[in-house]
Amino acid sequence: MTEPLLDITALTRTFGGGQRWFGVDKPGVRAVQQVDLQVMRGETLGIVGESGCGKSTLARMLVGLDRPTDGQILYGGEDLQTMVKRDRHALSRRIQYVFQDPLSSLNPRMRIRDILAAPLRHLRGLTGQAMETRLAELMDVVNLRPEFISRYPHEFSGGQAQRIGIARALAAEPEVLVLDEPVSALDVSVQAQVLQLLKRLKAEFDLTYLFISHDLSVVETISDRIAVMYFGRIIEQAPTYTLFQTPAHHYTRLLIASAPVPGGPPIIAESGDAELPDPLAPPPGCAFAPRCPRASEVCRRQLPPLESLPRQPAAEAPDTHRVACLFPARGPLTRAPQPSTPNEIS
Ligand SMILES: Nc1ncnc2c1ncn2[C@@H]1O[C@H](COP(=O)(O)OP(=O)(O)OP(=O)(O)O)[C@@H](O)[C@H]1O
Asked: Would you say the CB of residue 138 lies under 6 angstroms from ligand 1?
């Protein structure tokens, strides 16, 4: 088996907590809990889940913008926190972050030339003609006209601004792009263009993508494998085709049944109890149990580990289908033409 480029073990991030309130420990928000994940070189791993499930917190830790409370991220076998401390620029040359909101992620007072020149200068040491050549290449590679380089961000549409954000990330010549909801702020037709561009760039520059979105249909379009997050944990992961054909977690089945239309509405789970558990007081068992049509008493008490499905022969392979459910569903799911009701979950 080839070594993973990113190897994430028991990654946990808790916000706040630690202090004592009236003699008792103040609880923290458990944004990411015990996440194990491997990202293989050259793949696109999609991470999907509804708002607040911890996707951005996970993404920020992967690019060194946030520190784990516990657990480890190995990048090419090296501890990412050690890399951050030793040389943040070295890490930035390898992993880049693409933000959700393209316009607000670009400095409104800087021309595009300066926005792109900053990483070329600081991360690649370019000046003079080499800088000019690279600036022109970057504009070309994301299909922006050369004269746009003198404009300010507010002079661009959302799709154009996101292409600038992608060009800025590519300026560092990274191996990995962590794309945090990169098309969520865009119209559906523009989303398709940006997704096409990302696919082309990945092939052209041999990139590895971590693609984060709440929109299952977008993640399906671009990912080789998908990890589904719920309440800070990975609850299922599988190759894209397998996940859509035979989703095993009842939450994943609900997501797929509720989001049948590519580019359709965002994922809104529609089971009886639509509330996520209180992040300050997570339940001892499966966090989805209160919403799950198949939950039994044991699910509310016992936390299900993320385990390979028995039918997988090579349990340790990265493309193994894994699920965190004591009573996983079996068999294919028929995708409904309309958003589902709880009764349609099989
Ligand atoms: N800096 C912070 N301080 C306190 N709590 C935080 C902080 N950042 C995130 N959280 C909490 O951690 C949990 C996960 O947030 P996160 O932004 O990672 O989720 P998400 O899946 O990316 O959601 P969204 O798509 O809405 O951004 C939420 O309960 C959130 O309120």
From this structure: no
Instruction: Please give the Cα distance from 138 to 117 (Å, whole number).
Output: 10
Contact, 247 vs 309, CB < 8 A?
Answer: no
Q: Is the model's pLDDT at 341 over the cut of 50?
A: no
Evaluate whether 191 touches 202 at the Cβ level (below 8 Å): no
CA of 31 to the centre of ligand 1 (A): 6
- 21-35, 39-53, 94-108: which has the minimum mean pLDDT? 21-35
For residue 271, give Cα distances in angstroms to 124, 137, 275, 292, 301.
50, 49, 9, 7, 20
**Interval 82-130: pLDDT, tens:** 999 998 899 999 999 999 888 888 999 999 999 999 999 999 999 999 9
Based on the number of CB atoms within 10 Å of its own CB, is 24 exposed (0-12), middle (13-18) or buried (19 or more)?
Answer: exposed
Structure tokens at 202: 């990945």
Beta bridge partners, 208, equal: 176
Ligand 1 binding pocket includes 15 (Cβ within 6 Å): yes
How large is the average pLDDT for residues 154-164? Answer: 94
Q: Across the chain, what does the average pLDDT equal? A: 88
Report the separation in Å between the CA atom of 132 and the middle of ligand 1, taken as the mean of its atom positions: 39
Q: Which CATH architecture has domain 6-87+224-236+246-344?
A: 3-Layer(aba) Sandwich (3.40)
**Residue 145 Cα, ligand 1 centroid: separation in angstroms?**
37
Distance CA(213)–CA(217), nearest Å, equals 9
Average pLDDT value for residue range 19-43: 84
Domain boundaries, the chain: 6-87+224-236+246-344
**53: CA distance to ligand 1 center in Å?**
7
Q: Is the CB of 60 under 6 A from ligand 1?
A: no
Q: Which atom of ligand 1 lies closest to the CA of 212? A: 22
Q: What global pTM score does this model have?
A: 0.89
